[in-house]
Design goal:
Blueprint (H helix, E strand, L loop, with lengths): L2 H4 L11 E6 L10 H19 L9 E4 L10 H9 L7 E3 L11 H13 L3 E3 L4 E2 L4 H34 L12 E8 L2 E8 L1 H15 L5 H10 L12 H8 L7 E4 L5 E5 L2 E5 L9 E4 L8 H13 L17 E3 L5 E7 L5 E9 L10 E2 H24 L4 H31 L10 H27 L7 H16 L5 H8 L3 E8 L3 E2 L16 E2 L3 E7 L2
Parallel strand pairs: 1-2, 1-3, 3-4, 12-16
Antiparallel strand pairs: 4-5, 6-7, 8-11, 9-10, 13-14, 14-15, 16-19, 17-18
Helix pairs in contact: 6-9, 7-8, 10-13, 11-12, 13-14
Length: 547
């Protein structure tokens, strides 16, 4: 048997205590599908399990990653595995090679290794076993993961060069064809080249959109209504949207071109977190090449559309936030809600501002007064502050502190046992036989020590699994009070209120039934809308707090 496996007593491992994690990598055969690669790796690990444990790992302990993602955050199955190893019943994770766990950056590698180390979880491959409590295994495992990350970065550079070369030759390498085309392959010598072919039905819709926009001088919103009335289905969703039309009117694929770096990945830092975004580039900020596919519209018509779009451009970047609830308030239909002001021709206020669903053409949720909804949000903040103060008085962090002390005590006990084990082995390896204890006594003491060590490790895993998430109630009270004070302060800017609210609230969902016209004999004791005998139904909000 391999020495690496002799270091560990696999007989103590049960099949239910091992998780199998499967993932396809760029280094695998590109001709094989994800399912074929995972099946191949599963066979390898099943054979190992039968040989080493005498039986296969049960199906419920197998996790198959079919989503492609560079970081741990982007892969749902590995996150399930990492949550599972917090449980004391899981003692090992079995993989084909270490790099299957992650090929992410140093931050990902560090997080993964700490989780396996502090949960005392073994990492098993058919070649060797890694116990990250052991410094040599730690170094070896770290080198493997770093080598995987270096290979990933190199592969990305090579692939990026290949994609750029393909686009420069006129190929369409996108996964989804633009509306008006279907994806196809053509032969260039012996090479299969990806390109676009016209979808007759959709191409006619594109021609109609450009014609209506340029020659009929229709606005994008009017064209959307026109297409909906004709029963033409949009590429996504149920109804056509002006935003979708804007993208189509700017899409250079319709004049027989292909583009590169139109949505380049940009890394930015927001609130001390590294975030990857893919902003749309403006004309002139990305590369354009002659495509292999045929144009749907003429370049003259396309340029005319760009000229008109330029005249109608709205500089949103310079617009200041007027709604404190922007990005937070949503209608029950899923659309965002906007703050509407109503003024007379002389600039005076005609009526109080109201909050209205942006999808009024299709959603008929009744609007509400801005002041009324703000008051409801203030009540939620006040209630939350009151709850936090009660928890603080009762010392809500007591349980976390007790659990932290238990973990610290167990970690110290485990270190002492490991030191004792090392001392026993060193004494037994003494060249002078008189300093060594009889082999039978040594074996008994060692078994007793290993059993005690395993019990402490299990206790430590249980303590980690039941560790409550620490919450700073003092900090929460300050944040919620700041947001409440800003909402109650008429001089505070909408942008400031919005910023403070987003520190406390992730989403507000608004729900209200349509107002109904009442008969004359039912109008007593009913709140009526101004301007008629309409009942004002109460509204509800569901506020999701950031805790």
């Amino acid at each position: 048997m391999n020495y690496e496996f002799m270091k560990y007593n696999l007989e103590n491992l049960k099949k239910d205590e091992i998780i199998v994690y499967l993932r396809k990598s760029r280094s695998d055969d590109p001709m094989l599908s994800v399912e074929e690669v995972l099946e191949k790796h599963e066979t390898i690990l099943d054979e190992w399990a039968e040989k080493s444990l005498g039986e296969k790992i049960p199906e419920e302990n197998k996790y198959r990653e079919v989503v492609s993602g560079e970081t741990l955050k982007e892969r749902p199955e590995i996150n399930k595995v990492l949550r599972q190893i917090e449980s004391p019943k899981i003692k090992a994770v079995c993989i084909v090679e270490p790099q299957r766990l992650t090929r992410g950056d140093l931050e990902d590698i560090g997080r993964l290794m700490k989780l396996f180390k502090h949960t005392h979880t073994l990492i098993i491959t058919p070649q060797r076993i890694y116990d990250l409590q052991d410094e040599y295994d730690w170094d070896a495992f770290e080198r493997e993961l770093k080598r995987g990350n270096d290979y990933l970065e190199y592969t990305k550079k090579i692939l990026s060069r290949g994609r750029l070369l393909s686009v420069s030759q006129g190929n369409y390498i996108g996964s989804v064809p633009p509306y008006g085309y279907d994806k196809a392959f053509i032969l260039d010598g012996k090479r299969k080249c990806p390109t676009l072919v016209e979808n007759p039905e959709q191409a006619d819709v594109i021609r109609m959109i450009f014609e209506l926009y340029v020659n009929k001088d229709m606005r994008r919103a009017s064209i959307c209504n026109y297409l909906d009335d004709m029963g033409i289905k949009p590429p996504k969703g149920i109804h056509w949207s002006p935003a979708a039309l804007k993208d189509m009117l700017e899409n250079i694929h319709y004049i027989g071109k292909v583009k590169w770096n139109w949505r380049k990945t940009v890394t930015v830092v927001e609130d001390s977190e590294i975030i990857k975004t893919r902003p749309k580039a403006r004309m002139g900020e990305f590369l354009i090449y002659e495509g292999r596919h045929k144009a749907i519209i003429s370049e003259e018509l396309f340029e005319a559309a760009q000229e008109k779009q330029g005249r109608n451009h709205r500089a949103k970047a310079k617009t200041k936030i007027r709604n404190p609830l922007a990005g937070l308030l949503y209608c029950s239909c899923g659309r965002a809600m906007s703050l509407r002001f109503y003024k007379n021709s002389d600039g005076s206020e005609r009526c109080s501002p109201r909050l209205l669903c942006d999808g009024q053409k299709y959603c008929h949720t009744t609007s509400c007064l801005y002041d009324e909804l703000i008051e409801k949000v203030c009540e939620v903040l006040e209630d939350s502050i009151h709850d936090f103060e009660i928890l603080l008085r009762n010392d809500g962090k007591d349980s976390a502190k007790i659990q932290a002390d238990i973990i610290k005590h167990l970690e110290k006990k485990l270190q002492d046992l490991q030191a004792k084990e090392l001392a026993q082995w060193e004494a037994q390896a003494d060249p002078d036989p008189s300093n060594r204890m009889p082999q039978e006594i040594f074996k008994q003491l060692n078994e007793k020590l290993l059993k005690e060590k395993e019990e402490v490790q299990n206790s430590l895993r249980e303590a980690y699994a039941s560790m409550p998430e620490p919450i700073s109630y003092e900090e929460k009270i300050i944040k919620f009070k700041d947001a409440l004070s800003a909402l109650r302060n008429p001089d505070a800017s909408a942008q400031k209120k919005n910023q403070l609210l987003k520190n406390c609230i992730s989403r507000i969902e608004y729900r209200r039934e349509q107002s109904q016209r009442l008969k004359k004999d039912t109008q007593k004791d009913v709140k009526l809308k101004a301007g008629g005998n309409w009942s004002e139904t109460p509204f509800e909000i569901n506020v999701k707090l950031l805790l």
